[in-house]
Design a protein that fits this description.
Elements lengths: L1 H4 L8 E3 L4 H11 L1 E5 L4 H16 L13 E4 L2 H4 L1 H8 L2 H11 L1 E7 L2 E7 L2 E10 L36 E7 L11 E2 L20 E2 L7 E5 L4 E2 L10 E9 L9 H4 L2 H4 L4 H7 L34
Parallel strand pairs: 1-2
Antiparallel strand pairs: 2-10, 3-6, 4-5, 6-12, 7-10, 7-12, 8-9, 8-11
Helix pairs in contact: 3-5
């Protein structure tokens, strides 16, 4: 990783969207994240914001400390905004980064033939988050805890050794000006190299803070310790669109949600329904509108339910 690294300083980099893919991959492997200026056109960001505004305004207060009461969220964004989907989820640079880190290739025997299987990545979550004045910072966390990913401590990235190290990659696009003061994402550079069994918890003093203009992107490995920051302003709201992509094989072999009609699912008891997948995999995998998917079968129970800590 030598010659490419000589072009850049040691801090997490802000690059243009026209930067060679090889350089962007190098920087992500080195630092765990990279900022990309003007990744999405401002007018497309505004259209996506308009598409989800109603859901943001209708959001229920989170039951717990992970999201402060000043934060509004809009999940299921693919269902709500084609502009978001086309310009962010399917953004060519983001897609290329995800394909590099998350495509899984495996050899296996099929009788007397040796075959290769290639599993491409798939989208796993799409949520906009707007932090209002007074919103408190999230606890620093890794998003791959959802996949129960276990990391060994390493000094630097090695392509061969670490080709399966990551389970997910995230893209955060600024829907407004983002600063340290209004809740800009805080992250610890190079924490993707840390082992799971570290004795000390992540410390905010090691963080940098996202400083972004509307349309800028932050591409980040899900093993990076990060969290929404404190909004210490009195009149600014910080809007970010968050898209995460996961390895394609982290799902059911037979898709029970589509293979079994909902009317048939409802004929079974709850133990069977949960075993089919209508349940949360602790801590936070499988939700619908941020709550347990069992409520899609029992909507009459949903009215008293609030999203809550994982």
């Amino acid at each position: 990783m030598g010659s490419t690294g000589e072009k850049y300083g040691s801090e997490v980099q802000y690059v243009s969207k026209d930067t060679p893919l090889e350089d962007i991959l190098h920087l992500i492997k080195r630092d765990g994240a990279v900022f990309v200026r003007n990744l999405v056109a401002k007018e497309d960001v505004d259209r996506a914001h308009a598409d989800i505004r109603e859901r943001l305004d209708q959001d229920l207060e989170w039951n717990g400390s992970f999201f402060p009461k000043e934060t509004k969220r809009a999940p299921s964004m693919i269902a709500r905004s084609q502009t978001y989907t086309k310009t962010q989820v399917m953004n060519p640079l983001f897609q290329a980064v995800c394909n590099h880190f998350l495509t899984t290739r495996s050899w296996f025997w099929w009788g007397d033939k040796r075959k290769e299987s290639i599993s491409p990545p798939q989208v796993t979550s799409c949520t906009a988050m707007e932090i209002g004045p007074g919103g408190k910072a999230q606890p620093l966390h890794r998003d791959d805890y959802i996949n129960h990913n276990y990391h060994t401590e390493v000094g630097e990235w090695d392509d061969e050794r670490d080709k399966r190290r990551e389970t997910a990659v995230g893209l955060m696009v600024a829907g407004s000006k983002v600063t340290k003061q209004n809740g800009g994402t805080q992250l610890i550079p190079r924490s993707h190299l840390w082992g799971t069994d570290r004795k000390e918890p992540p410390n905010v003093k090691d963080c940098i803070f996202a400083e972004m203009e509307k349309g800028d992107g932050l591409i980040m490995l899900s093993s990076v310790y990060h969290g929404g920051g404190n909004n210490t302003t009195t009149d600014e709201k910080r809007l970010m669109f968050s898209t995460f992509v996961v390895r394609g094989h982290l799902r059911q072999e037979e898709n029970q949600y589509l293979a079994v009609p909902k009317d048939a699912v409802k004929q079974y008891d709850r133990a069977t329904q949960k075993f089919m997948g209508y349940s949360i995999s602790d801590p936070a995998c499988g939700y619908v509108e941020e709550v347990d998917p069992i409520y899609t079968l029992y909507p009459e129970e949903y009215k008293d339910v609030k999203p809550s800590d994982f």
